[in-house]
Amino acid sequence: MKKIVLITGATAGFGEACAHKFAANGDDLIINGRRTDRLEKLSVVLKNKYQANILLLPFDVRDEKEVAAAINSLEGNWSKIDVLVNNAGLALGRDYFDEANLEDWNTMIDTNVKGFLYVAKAVSQLMVNRKQGHIINMSSVAGKEVYEKGNVYCATKFAVDALSKSMRIDLLRHGIKVTSINPGAADTEFSLVRFKGDENTANKIYDGLKPLSAADVADVIYYCTTLPAHVCINDLTLTCVQQANAIYFNRQQDK
Ligand code: NDP
Ligand code: 8X3
Fold first, then answer.
1. C-alpha distance from residue 123 to each of 73, 78, 98, 134 (Å)
2. Which atom of ligand 1 is least distant from the CA of 187?
3. What is the pLDDT of residues 97-116, one digit of tens each?
């Protein structure tokens, strides 16, 4: 059956790939990100390619009031969100703890933890009213193990991991599913953002690897939403075959 799916961070990477996946399967989408030009372009593509119904909902997840106003402005069927892909997030910098930049730390905490919470809180309220819904939280292998110079980024994803567990317990009485998705290295704009536009450093992250693609991750997320009403994947880690966890890789020069 057709679902209403709200995707945060749909202007790139996993969010954009999820938008394609859900739209291709006939769902109606509410797409979010800060770059409205990208949302508009994506909306045109999704409408032309899949005849999808698309609502643009641009906001900055860090702005508590903007998030609440945007979610509370949803009317009619658009307010009946079946699936939230709580995906917007970023890493900034990869530095030793003693050398890292406080501004980077603040932005990661404000986006990945506080923004994540603002969206989850506002949408879960709509789901509680209907006694149904599925929240997919974007964590990471970095939310399972810390790695050198990962400090605050890892901590934000550990927070997402803990909050997914808490939400699953607290929303249990309302029948709301909560799934934590924990991908390993994936080829999106993530590293370019992390290294502030330094393409050489960003590309080195994938040296000798065939990493996950955004579409790989979107396929897995979509699958989690196709299970029977009484079944929930609570916690799912996926990596490329050359990655064991946040730390161990099997890099090959011909990849
Ligand atoms: P991308 O950089 O490709 O996409 C990030 C998305 O997040 C963009 O759409 C961006 O939109 C949005 N975003 C960032 N900040 C905000 C904000 N303040 N308000 C609203 N939207 C925002 O990265 P990925 O797709 O790779 O990352 C998506 C999620 O997956 C993140 O949470 C990341 O931590 C996680 N992740 C990534 C992995 C990887 O290797 N790629 C692995 C594991 C987890 P805009 O700039 O337009 O606002
Ligand atoms: C993104 C994956 O390993 O770069 O969360 O932290 S990693």
1. 12, 12, 37, 10
2. 41
3. 999 999 999 999 999 999 99
